[in-house]
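Late entry, written up from scratch paper. The run itself happened at the end of the previous shift, but nothing got recorded in the book at the time, so transcribing now.
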Amino acid sequence: MNLDLEESKKAIQKLRGEYLHLGFVNNDNNAEMSGYIVDQAIKLTNNMKKFIQEENEEFGQIKTQINALVQERIKVQQETIIIENRIYETEKDLGYK
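Output as recorded:
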């Protein structure tokens, strides 16, 4: 009976050791996984910042192009009015109207 008790104690001690070892391994795995997740989150954040910056730059370029086109349209409209006035004056001078 004493022998069985000693063997049981040794088995329990061995199981405790294995339990502690598995706990350490689990903690290491958790730390490694947490580090990986943090690294991936940082990469994703940096990629997103870069994407947003590129989009803002492209938006600025498009906005500049739109403003230039608007100014060009205004200039064309003004020139059209000048030409229409010249045509009107010429027709008036020639007696067409």
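The mean pLDDT is 92.
(Scratch paper discarded after transcription.)
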